[in-house]
Write a structure and sequence with these properties.
This protein has 244 residues and is mostly helical. The chain has two domains: 14-53, no CATH class; 57-239, no CATH class. The protein has eight helices and eight strands. It has helices at residues 57-79, 93-121, 142-148, 151-163, 173-189, 206-212, 216-230, 236-239, and strands at residues 14-16, 21-23, 28-30, 35-37, 39-43, 49-53, 128-130, 138-140. It has a two-stranded antiparallel ribbon. Strand 2 and strand 3 (28-30) form a beta hairpin. Helix 1 packs antiparallel against helix 2 (93-121) and helix 2 (93-121) packs parallel to helix 4. The longest helix is centred in the middle third of the chain and has 29 residues, at 93-121.
């Protein structure tokens, strides 16, 4: 039987009936303990619709990022770490390209997981004050903050102010983790020609970064957990996330 404990961790919103409920549409009695989930209904074709349980977006992106990073780590272990004593190491092309593909996926999805979480928990029942360079301050709604503010700005300023917690900027690794994750994500999304040139080890290209960067999953979770710990209770999906 599906319960609150064993239901898929990626479900966005999950509760259970505390007492039996009479369904007026089907005239059936729904038993105590039945799970209550948010769903969306999509048109499949002219005759059919599909009901889909709504997942938490951050959990899906983290799931993809975790799977991709694990695959990338395995490739690096199999092809590079076993040659630790060699001065020069060659990463076989097929394995190297697959490694980079996995890292693309891990970095971009991990960063998107953070942005989805931050946008989700930004309160809607308030306005946000934003200073502008050399001009008057702006009064912005949540929708405007979501669209116009950078993720770093949201994490450093708007979300802490809205939740009444200290900004992680300068005091917690969550902020430096976000900076590192954002920097490499931006280099991937806005790929420059300089990162595609042949280079020696003295040039810091995106390829070098992807070989040596920290875990994008850990960086993303650092930010998410900072705010989850500050705003109780933590979301169910975060407490149920599988161990790696």
């Amino acid at each position: 039987m599906e319960t609150l404990d064993n239901a898929d961790w990626r479900i966005d919103s999950l509760n259970s009936l505390a007492e039996p409920w009479h369904n007026p549409w089907s005239n059936q009695i729904v038993p105590i303990g039945t799970l209550i989930k948010k769903v969306t209904i999509a048109r499949w074709n002219k005759k059919q619709t599909v009901t889909l349980t709504i997942p938490n977006a951050s959990s899906l992106f983290l799931s993809v990022a975790t799977r991709a990073y694990a695959a990338a780590t395995l490739l690096k272990t199999e092809n590079l770490f076993i040659k630790a004593r060699d001065t020069e190491i060659s990463f076989p092309e097929s394995a190297a390209f697959t490694y980079l593909e996995h890292m693309f996926e891990a970095v971009i999805c991990a960063h998107t997981a953070v942005e989805a979480y931050v946008n989700e928990i930004l309160p809607t029942d308030r306005t946000y004050v934003r200073a502008t360079r050399g001009g008057p301050t702006e009064i912005l709604t949540k929708d405007e903050i979501e669209r116009r503010a950078s993720l770093t700005e949201k994490v450093a300023t708007f979300l802490p102010e809205a939740l009444g917690v200290r900004s992680p900027k300068g005091i917690h690794r969550a902020y430096s983790d976000l900076q590192a994750l954002t920097k490499i994500r931006d280099r991937l999304i806005h790929m420059k020609s300089a990162d595609r040139k042949s280079s020696g080890p003295e040039i810091d290209t995106i390829w070098h970064q992807l070989l040596t960067c920290g875990s994008p999953v850990d960086q993303a979770l650092s930010v998410i957990r900072y705010f989850a710990n500050a705003s109780s209770p933590a979301p169910r999906w975060l407490t149920k996330i599988p161990k790696r």
